[in-house]
Amino acid sequence: MRKPWREQLSRWWAMPVTRALLAFLLMLAIGCLFNADGAFFRWSVHRDTMRQVSVYGILACGMTVVIITAGIDLSVSSLLALAAVLFAWFTLPHGWPAILAIPLVFLAGTVLGSVSGALVAQLGIQPFIVTLAMMVFARGLAKVISGGQKVTNYVTDTDGSTRLIEHPPIYEMIDSRILGGNISIVTIVFLLCVLVTSTVLAHLRLGRHIYAVGGNKEGARLSGVPVKRTLIAAYALSGFFSAVAGICQAAQETHGDPETGMAYELDAIAMVVIGGTTLAGGKGSVVLTLIGVLTIGYLQKILSLNAAPEATRLMLTGAIIICAVWFQRGRKSARSKPK
Amino acid sequence: MTGRRGMRRSTVPFAGICMLLLIGCSPAERTGHAGTAEDPWIIGMSQCNLGEPWRVQMDADVRAAAAEHANLRVIFKDAQNESLTQRAQVEEFVEQGVDLIIISPKEAAPLTRPVAEAYQRGIPVIVLDRAVQGDQFTTFIGADNVKIGREAGRWIREQLGGSGRLVELKGLMTSVPGQDRNRGFLEGLQLEENTGLQIVFSGEMKWLEPDARREMESALATNAAIDVVYAHNDPGAHGAWLAARAAGRENEMMFVGIDALPHEGQQYVRQGILDATFLYPTGGAEAIEVALAILRGEEVPKHIVLGTRLFTQENIGRGGDPIP
User: Fold this and answer.
1) For A186-238, what is each residue's pLDDT tens digit?
2) C-alpha distance from A103 to closest chain B C-alpha (Å)
């Protein structure tokens, strides 16, 4: 006869969050093992890891929502670059106050995101293709606005003369730390994004619709879910988060680089998938994504601390993505033989 | 009905293509321009990729140098990182009857033949920055990354007086510029004679600023004292500085970069972010000078290696100092 605690354990084991956490703890254990002369045991290293991973994490929040609708958003990295360029362009050469620039950048990201959503929902084009097109388009737009150069605090006036200007305080503000210098503002922004996503997915009607659309689009439609509006909202949310990430990127780099964030969408997808949200849609949560983000972030940090060469990093990252996803998939068979 | 609709659909693009062809096929003009203000020499410039600021600068340098000569007109083309597009551009220049071609090729092998064909048809070709194979071109102008790395290494060694703890943030070690800037740097440091010099951390930042910042955070976390950060490009050095500033340690060490673009590295030096940067010259201005010499019928060397320039806070006001 099975004891109740064993049943309890096997139930926990079957939960994706347990497995995601275990993969993350494994990563921390690897960090303790390869601690680079004790550097891994210092808080500043963990603080920097979380700062570094925050921009990816913000993108992953939006990606989670889109993936739950059984879609994909390849445009996040380009929207990030566009947002970074717009933010720098508004605040540096134009000298607009941040209170005006930030909402405008948010608006741009949300609008372009909803355009992707509308193309997916109204025209029924595959999300991969729509967002691929948006990825190319937004990158082009970023280059047009910036003139192909970084938008920096070295500004050219209308008469052709150049001068250096001070960065507005918002740059310093976003790239600073609070709580006695122990946590970066961008990390707080990331956690806020997780909170927003989690609220939307778990507590709002929109969230229920998102799961319904991803699980069974036709069934959702028949049971009265506004499928099109839900899809548009999901992509709009992803566009919004891309804009948030873009502002964080620009503030950290102290300029708007139209080339920034290349291929970040792939990292964001990897983070979502490692957490345990499946690309098939209808399942998953942003808490899983948070754990996935940290797992990849720590992997990168441990490799960096130990000065691993680039080739090793690529191979290890690929291998670990496969292992983590396989680990997630194993839960069905694990139920029959709990440890 | 469907037939008519179908026809209409296909006729519109067809007519469009015909019109484009008509515009595109205006007869190839006379070859050999006089090189006067009325009949200027025409130079075709094929840039492999305008996605990089450094290459944007190269085109800007060519444009600025050409603007000083009324007897010169330059047609700019961007191959958008496609070898075959660039090959087509060279062929187009030949058909158009330009007087000289400047090409900054994407890759050697696929562009060797079109360049050779243009050269054999009597059109002088200047190859900029990246080489093609063989000798079927007029002249090659390029910078030497090993030399620039060596100058950076030597400058750092002299600044440190032979002992110090160094961080090297490498570009991509699978790329030739990354390998050369690393090799030259090690040569310039002369580590055998200067045993006090120590590279305490070296990471690959793939030429990217956010990655450089991450690598520098690791360097700061594992090293209590750092004297110099040498990054293979200026964005890398800037990323390192941002990391050091976030840790409150930016005044503890020097930051040295490479490339010295006017809007980038030179500005960082002016703002006191970088202590030094070494110019990786585009050769744009030199290409126009050499082009004029060729068009006037003068002899030019087959290989021209460009020097570098050192920019520091002390000499930035006078535009840096040349290192031949």
Assistant:
1) 999 999 999 999 999 999 999 999 999 999 999 999 999 999 999 999 999 99
2) 25
Cross-chain Cβ contact B218/A36 below 8 Å: yes
Provide the CB-side half-sphere exposure for B171 (13 A, CA). Answer: 21
For residue A198, give both structure tokens.
């989690």
Q: Which of B137, B157, B177 is the last residue of a domain?
A: B137
Residue B41: inside a domain: yes
The whole-model pTM stands at 0.81
Q: Are residues B193 and B226 in the same domain?
A: yes
Quick one: B156 and B107 in the same domain? Answer: no
Distance from CA of A304 to the nearest CA of B (A): 6
Assign B263 to helix, strand or coil: coil
Instruction: Say whether B218 and A148 touch across the interface (CB within 8 A).
Output: no
Percent of chain B's residues with pLDDT above 70: 90
Closest alpha carbon within chain A to B243: A48
B92 and B162 share one domain: no
Residue in B56, B204, B221 closest to A309 by CB = B204
Instruction: Say how many C-beta atoms besides its own lie within 10 A of residue B69's C-beta.
Output: 17
Supply the angle between the helices A227-253 and B234-246 in degrees, to the nearest 10.
Answer: 90
Please report, for the domain that includes residue B117, its CATH number. Answer: 3.40.50.2300
Element (H or E) spanning A28, and its range? helix A16-33
Residues B163 and B276 in one domain: yes
CATH 1.10.3470 for domain A42-330: yes
CB burial readout A219-234, b (16+ within 10 A) else e: ebeeeebbbbebbbbb
Task: Give A245 to chain B, closest Cα distance, Å.
Answer: 13
Q: Of the residues B86, B112, B137, which one is the last residue of a structural domain?
A: B137
